[in-house]
Design brief:
This protein is an alpha+beta fold. The protein has one domain. It is about 25% helix and about 20% strand. It is built from two helices and four strands. The chain has a four-stranded antiparallel sheet, with no helix packed on it. A hairpin with a 4-residue loop joins β3 and β4. The chain is globular, with a radius of gyration of 13 Å. The structure holds zinc ion.
């Protein structure tokens, strides 16, 4: 698995880019649970490492990094990931 440096990941998140908080990859695999209209249940996972990076559960899709804009270090990111999992 290819991984960007912590500094690159941190910078991307701070700039509001939707990258994977674990490896820094921009690519996402979108999984539609096909629950049927009008229900919406979509999961986004990192295409590189498989980390869950967001989705929608009868709401507007939200990317995981949107709640990480204020982090200062990779430690903060890891802590937030632990809460989310
Ligand atoms: Zn990843």
């Amino acid at each position: 698995m290819k991984k960007k440096s912590n500094r690159v990941i941190l910078n991307r998140i701070k700039k509001g880019k939707f990258c994977c908080p674990v490896c820094g990859d921009y690519r996402m695999r979108i999984y539609d649970h096909q629950v049927g209209y009008p229900e919406i249940w979509v999961d986004w996972n990192c295409k590189n490492c498989g980390q869950w990076v967001g989705g929608a559960d009868n709401s507007l899709p939200v990317h995981i990094t949107e709640s990480m804009r204020d982090v200062r270090s990779m430690k903060d990111i890891r802590r937030m990931l632990e809460i989310l999992v």
